[in-house]
Amino acid sequence: MMSQNLLPIQQAVEMHLQHHFNFDFADVAKAFLLKYNLENKFCFTTIASTRQLDEDRFEIVRRMENVMSSRPVYERIIFNRKMMAVQGFTFETENQNVYTECYCYKQDDKDSQKTIYNMFLYKNPGLKKMLRFKLHNWGVQTLENIIKKDHDLIAKLKDSKDKMIEKKDKIIKEGQVIIKEGQVIIKERINDLKTFKSSTFSSAKEESTPSTMKDSKSL
């Protein structure tokens, strides 16, 4: 298990990369986890271990293999909900406490709807410096694409839900109209039936009255 006392391999920073995301921290952190599902055929990630450090911090140890290196490297990734940050430290062996790289995704202190990403390399990349710059840009674009697709999916689900609710409300309203019309028709039929019974009873009464009077006179 990695030590809690993490130190850079040297104090001097050999390379510093930065990017400002126009998305809030929650979106960036979610995309950060989802990106492992989109790894290309040149990289392979395995989660070596996970643990809860305290009530605000959760740690993932990632084992990464790629075609650029004959040996795997390890990343200790710490999610800190209190600080609204994701920190990553890269080690050459799993149990090492001296890191060669570190990065941090953190909510912008000036704008909560933005996230700042910083990447520090403490080991000179040499001829791979340009490649590291391209990988940085590729990583940023990957996260932004994931976030945009996630937003599009949420918007489509919301639109679909709204249409279903609208259709449901329409069916309910049409049903209410049909019920109301049915009630009116039933009421009219009842009134017609009452009128028919009343007129029939009156006619029968009128027809029976003269006969009764005639019979009375004959008596």
From TrEMBL:
It comes from the Eukaryota. Residues 200-219 are annotated as: Disordered. Residues 204-219 have a biased composition (Basic and acidic residues). This is Uncharacterized protein. It comes from Stylonychia lemnae (Ciliate).
